[in-house]
Design goal:
Elements (H helix, E strand, L loop, with lengths): L1 H18 L4 H11 L6 H9 L1 E9 L6 E2 L1 H14 L5 E7 L5 E10 L2 E12 L5 E8 L7 H10 L19 H12 L4 H5 L2 E9 L6 E2 L1 H10 L5 E8 L5 E10 L5 E10 L6 E8 L7 H9 L9 E2 L8
Parallel strand pairs: 1-6, 7-12
Antiparallel strand pairs: 1-2, 3-4, 4-5, 5-6, 5-13, 7-8, 9-10, 10-11, 11-12
Helix pairs in contact: 3-4
């Protein structure tokens, strides 16, 4: 009789379980701000408990991804130990995705703030974390040297033949990015610029300073639009007003790629892109300067912090 009752109640139990799951954005905010998963051992374990058995944590500071719940749990605890009880992680911006989300973050310690970066998190159908990509900003920012190097590497490359696309007006934040990077693919700069707010702030972590305004952003996009570079979007979250997605860049069909991540935020009234944060992975893992900075200043992760609040939204 008990077995029969359990069998009959199972669909109701499963329905309650699904309905009580947190979306990606809510789960991540809780794990970071309430459980302190990046600064306490207890929080690190709660993060691990929120993961799927086959979770993949792609920490792009490290040489290899961490695979499996046990390995990810140990990695989270190691990250806590490396901070030596100093500082915390602050969420600057987080996308409003349900199945997946991304967040821009800053390390804080005392009255200072330091290392910034972006993380993408994807859940499975059971509401468990199944994939993470985390990329910290580079300590050394090469600026226009990046552009000069890319042009030298791709000299003589032929343009790719791309499938035709149909111009349209994208709606949600994730749709804007899918349209730009899966459909337009850099072929029409003006179409892209029509989607940006006049007072856009664009933070590319290859550079020390953020770009502000459409004129600076358009020049930046045009400068990096030349043959030999193939930008491949990978995973998108389902954010409405803000979104995060992962990508890789292929140079001249080389086997090795450069991984990265972008966070886009729309103006809630105009639905134009108001903020962008791009962050590429380091070619050396762990990056030499980043490793030294974390050893010397474990709470900040940089050699010299700045006053808390001096970079609104992690700018």
């Amino acid at each position: 009789m008990k077995l029969l009752v359990s069998f009959l109640l199972l669909p109701l139990i499963n329905a309650f379980s699904v309905s009580s799951k947190q979306g990606a954005s809510s789960l991540i905010q809780s794990l970071i701000t309430e459980e302190k998963c990046f600064s306490t051992v207890e929080g690190a374990q709660i993060f691990a408990d929120s993961c799927a058995v086959n979770v993949v944590y792609e920490d792009c500071y490290e040489p290899q991804p961490f695979v499996g719940k046990t390995n990810v749990g140990q990695h989270m605890k190691d990250k806590v130990d490396q901070r030596k009880g100093k500082g915390d992680v602050r969420i600057d911006k987080i996308s409003d995705g349900t199945q997946a989300c991304g967040f821009a973050w800053t390390w804080t310690s005392g009255g200072e703030e330091g290392l910034r970066g972006t993380t993408f998190v994807e859940l499975n159908d059971n509401g468990e974390i199944q994939y993470v990509r985390e990329i910290p900003e580079p300590i050394y920012k090469p600026g226009d040297l990046t552009l000069e190097l890319l042009k030298a590497v791709t000299a003589g490359a032929e343009p790719l033949e791309l499938a035709p696309y149909t111009p349209r007006i994208p709606e949600d934040a994730n749709d804007v990015c899918k349209y730009l990077f899966n459909e337009v693919q850099g072929r029409d700069v003006q179409i892209a610029m029509d989607l940006f707010s006049d007072d856009i702030t664009y933070r590319d972590f290859n550079y020390e300073d953020a770009l502000t305004g459409k004129e600076q952003v358009q020049k930046f996009i045009e400068d990096f639009s030349f043959p030999g570079i193939e930008f491949r979007a990978q995973r998108f979250d389902d954010g409405i007003l803000s979104t995060c997605f992962t990508w890789e860049v292929v140079l001249m069909d080389a086997p090795d790629t450069i991984k990265g991540m972008s966070f886009y935020e729309l103006d809630p009234e105009t639905r134009k892109i108001a903020y962008v944060r791009d962050v590429p992975e380091s070619a050396i893992k762990p990056p030499i300067l980043g490793k030294i900075a974390r050893q010397l200043r474990p709470g900040l992760g940089v050699f010299q912090g700045v006053e808390s609040g001096s970079r609104p939204g992690g700018m």
